[in-house]
Write a structure and sequence with these properties.
The chain is 33% helix and 22% strand. The chain is an alpha/beta fold. A six-stranded mixed beta sheet has the order 8-9-10-11-12-16, with helices on both faces.
Length: 389
């Protein structure tokens, strides 16, 4: 059963999706979508915002497959966020925030084993790589908009997280719809980008953090590059660009860094990668590879080629969606913005291209708990002679 107001929003979304998306039925047919819709409204009641969010995410995952992680329901609103942040490493869910619980193992939510929660989340998160899957799972674990819609948590009035820290059981309980005090709120975006557009010098290496190209960072990026231009770089023989965590924004902001690197092409160049790099971040990665960078780290959060360039569609005053209106392949300079253009592609041109780093290093429980950065350490220790192109 689905309430009329949610049925209306769904219908309007599908109409807009079919109109805007450059290739709307790339993963399932319209007939298959109708079958999925009927099965879902028969199996569950869509009667509040949480069940509607689950319903829409379930639908969008099946529309999108693995080649479109940009089409989505916009629910990343801070009032849904709990003051907790977890990392998934070696199949364990480890507490990252708050610091008082750091390294604690998340065992359950409302006594539901965390493995069950993760499986239910996997049913409604969209991803094209294993890295994106991990990142979306991590973000979902503090987002009540998603958690309260899960089958095992759907009828709950509170969420109780059971964490094992140094063999002691600690519980954190949050009441549904109860406001988090300001001093306890978790600012995920500030937490993630706190050292963006900053640099440090280690021995003969200049390490630059390029962790976001969100529009509000433009002045910070410009000013940091101006600072770099004032440095005496004669003793620097290696640039290390830390791209980890860059899930995009405005890809044109990458130009400030790229132009700086082109002006200093007598240096060796390395780029650090991880599972969170997405969208505009992958454009930066491709630009750096073209400049001759050696890539060190993990695979990224997206295929190189995918649907994207999200169009923001406000369905009504309550619900906003992002809908991919382009097909993008920066490696082959493909940027398609119409259905007519897309239909001219031949299969090899949209077969997924998965990035593999030159030196593969993934984070382990040991490095996380010991707070060591083996990716950066590896880059610093490199003795290669590759120069910027």
């Amino acid at each position: 059963m689905i309430l009329e107001k949610y049925q209306d929003t769904y219908t309007k979304f599908i109409t807009k999706y079919e109109e805007i998306h450059v290739n709307p039925w790339h993963n399932i047919t319209k007939e298959e979508l109708n079958e999925i819709y009927q099965e879902l409204i028969t199996a569950m009641d869509i009667n509040d915002k949480y069940t509607f969010i689950y319903f829409m995410n379930y639908i969008i995952k099946r529309l999108s497959g693995t080649s479109d992680a940009h089409t989505k329901l916009c629910i990343n609103l801070t009032y849904y966020f709990l003051p907790l942040y977890f990392r998934i490493i070696e199949n364990e869910v480890i507490t990252m925030y708050p610091s008082s619980l750091k390294n604690g193992l998340l065992e359950s939510i409302n006594d539901i084993p965390i493995k069950v929660i993760l499986k239910e989340l996997d049913d409604v998160i969209t991803y094209g790589t294993e890295g994106k899957k991990k990142y979306e799972l991590e973000k979902s674990l503090f987002n009540t908009a998603i958690l309260y819609g899960l089958p095992s948590l759907r009828n709950s009035n509170q969420l109780t997280f059971k964490i094992n820290l140094n063999n002691q059981e600690i519980t954190k309980t949050f009441i549904k719809e109860e406001q988090i005090p300001d001093q306890e709120k978790f600012d995920f975006y500030n937490y993630s980008f706190k050292d963006n557009a900053s640099y440090k010098i280690i021995d003969n290496c200049l390490v630059y953090n390029h962790k976001s190209v969100q529009p509000f960072f433009e002045n910070d990026i410009k000013n940091s590059i101006l600072e770099l231009e004032q440095l005496d770089l004669t003793q620097i023989d290696k640039f290390i660009i830390d791209l980890r965590g860059n899930f995009g924004g405005n890809a044109s902001l990458n130009r400030y860094l790229m132009n700086f690197l082109k002006r200093h092409n007598d240096k060796k160049l390395y780029v650090l990668t991880d599972y969170r790099i997405f969208s505009g971040g992958r454009y930066a990665l491709i630009d750096l590879i073209r400049l001759g960078a050696i890539t060190i780290g993990d695979e990224i959060s997206t295929p190189i080629n995918c649907y994207g360039n999200s169009y923001h569609e406000l369905i009504n005053k309550y619900w906003q969606f992002n809908i991919s209106n382009s097909y993008l392949d920066p490696l082959n300079n493909i940027n398609i913005k119409s259905k007519e253009q897309f239909n001219k592609l031949v299969f090899p041109e949209y077969k997924q291209i998965i990035f593999k780093p030159d030196i593969y290093i993934t984070e382990t429980l040991e490095t996380f708990i010991n707070d060591t950065d083996n990716v950066l350490d590896t880059a610093i220790s490199q003795k290669g002679t590759s120069l910027l192109k």
